[in-house]
Design goal:
Structural class: mainly beta
Shape: globular
Helix content: under 10%
Number of domains: 1
Number of strands: 7
Number of helices: 0
Largest sheet: 5 strands, antiparallel
Strand content: 15-25%
Radius of gyration: 17 Å
Distance between the termini: 57 Å
Strand order of the largest sheet: 3-4-5-6-7
């Protein structure tokens, strides 16, 4: 950890989102496991949830990241729909 000329701390550890105040901190919005963050708000009647890292997750599994990037829906196939060759 180092201190910059402005007196702020810089570190190589995961930065907490302003909404993420618990330990261990949630995955960041740009990490591959961003969906593992805790729920902050859940509105199933509107079809969306807000995660602790600032990611909006929609019921179709699409996502909106805090930087405005859109992640297309990515529903995993359900086990009973998977067809295997005999």
């Amino acid at each position: 950890m180092t201190t910059s000329s402005r007196g702020t701390l810089t570190t190589t550890q995961r930065k907490n989102s302003p909404m993420c105040q618990h330990q261990p901190s949630c995955p960041t919005a740009d990490s591959a496991d961003r969906d593992a963050a805790r729920l902050r708000a859940h509105h199933p009647e509107q079809g969306w949830s807000l995660l602790c890292n600032g990611v909006l997750v929609f019921e179709d599994t699409g996502e909106l990241l805090p930087n405005g990037k859109i992640i297309a829906p990515h529903r995993p196939q359900r086990a009973e729909r998977v067809v295997t060759a005999a």
